[in-house]
Design goal:
The protein contains 16 helices and 13 strands. With 356 residues, it is an alpha/beta fold. The longest helix has 24 residues.
Length: 356
């Protein structure tokens, strides 16, 4: 029996690829034991047990950004977390540690190195996070979702996708999707999403042009997320949701999308051949702009700055795009050329190579 410790979490961008790899490991080797290491505060606290995996937790320990009391306490607390994970590795007979970034990952990387256990990483973003920049110094087994990710000895594996996305037959699922959302399967559909936290600029701009978008012959599936600040304008053909539990069906009916450029979003759209207008999150280290670079080079998407995504931009750019169905179809094909559907298989193959 092979025993794996999968470490990472915090956000969906870490948790979803972790769960995709866990599912593939368990599918390929039903006797394998998969233990997940995370924190009590991250999304993994809910999603991991919900998926049927055991979750072990360590304290959430943000890396200090300024000299204060937390910075003084950090070294001792970090060493304690490493000791906890080392004991877990020994007690559970862990054969390999697989990390996906996030608060729980860095102590797991240090513990794996100290225990001499094979360490494998997956970096979901084109610009790697701090934990994976640290962990990549400890191992030659580094899987990346995007070509050109600046980490030592990267292996391009793509994004491990959830099984329901990886195996999605969009054409076959379109009638079910239309019924799920109260849409017409015969009409082209614009999917709008800012992720689970929402995107105020995207939400406000699209809502302001709901009438014009539907008058152009398109129906709109708008998942606003966040605090649900928008009120439904009551426009026929415009469907406003706060959250969506069936993103596989939302992707099945989407002919074009407007979205942030989170790593998972970009990879899912590309894998399924969905052309998109990407509006990168304007705060942070700019990784969303880099995430979209490959599909933009392929011609499968358009990028617009958050500040520029105003109703006037929709009038001048989005509405003409939607009116050109041949251009939309070509963008979908070019998006698919940059996509990867077998990221889970590729990542598991990397793990097996690390195990020898």
């Amino acid at each position: 029996m092979t025993r794996y410790l999968l470490a990472g979490g915090g956000t969906a961008g870490h948790v979803n690829p972790l769960l995709a790899v866990a599912d593939r490991l368990r599918r390929d080797d039903p006797g394998a034991e998969v233990l997940v290491l995370g924190t009590k505060e991250g999304l993994e606290a809910r999603l991991v047990p919900q998926r049927g995996y055991e979750l072990a937790t360590i304290p959430k320990l943000p890396f200090p950004r300024r000299p204060n009391g937390a910075a003084l306490r950090f070294p001792g607390e970090y060493r304690r977390s490493i000791r906890t994970v080392r004991e877990l590795i020994r007690d559970r007979g862990i054969d390999a540690v697989v990390g996906f970034g996030g608060y729980a990952a860095a102590p797991a990387y240090s513990a794996a190195r100290s225990e001499g256990v094979p360490l494998v990483l997956h970096e979901a973003n084109a610009r790697p996070g701090l934990a994976n920049r640290l962990g990549a110094r400890y191992t030659p087994w580094v899987g990346v979702a995007f070509e050109g990710t600046p980490l030592p000895h990267p292996t391009f594996v793509g994004m491990p996708l959830r099984f329901e996305i990886e195996q999605l037959d969009r054409a076959a699922a379109r009638p079910e999707a239309a019924a799920e959302f109260g849409l017409d399967p015969a009409l082209p559909t614009l999917l709008v999403t800012g992720g689970s936290l929402g995107a105020r600029r995207i939400n406000q701009t699209v809502a302001a042009r709901a009438t014009e978008l539907t008058a152009a012959g398109w129906q709109v599936l708008h998942i606003q997320g966040g605090r649900g600040e928008l009120a439904d304008p009551g426009v026929e053909g415009y469907r406003l949701l706060e959250y969506c539990d069936r993103m596989d069906l939302a992707l099945a009916i989407a002919d074009v999308a407007v979205a942030r450029a989170g790593a998972a979003t970009v990879c899912e759209f590309a894998a399924l051949g969905i052309p998109a207008v990407y509006v990168p999150f304007p705060i942070g280290n700019g990784e969303q702009r880099y995430n979209a670079a490959g599909v933009l080079r392929a011609g499968g998407g358009v990028l617009v700055d958050d500040a520029a995504f105003e109703p006037a931009w929709v009038d001048a750019n989005l509405l003409p795009l939607l009116a050109d169905r041949a251009r939309v179809a070509g963008m979908g094909e070019r998006a698919a050329s940059a996509g990867v559907r077998d990221g889970s298989d590729r990542m598991v193959a990397l793990i097996l190579r690390a195990l020898g």
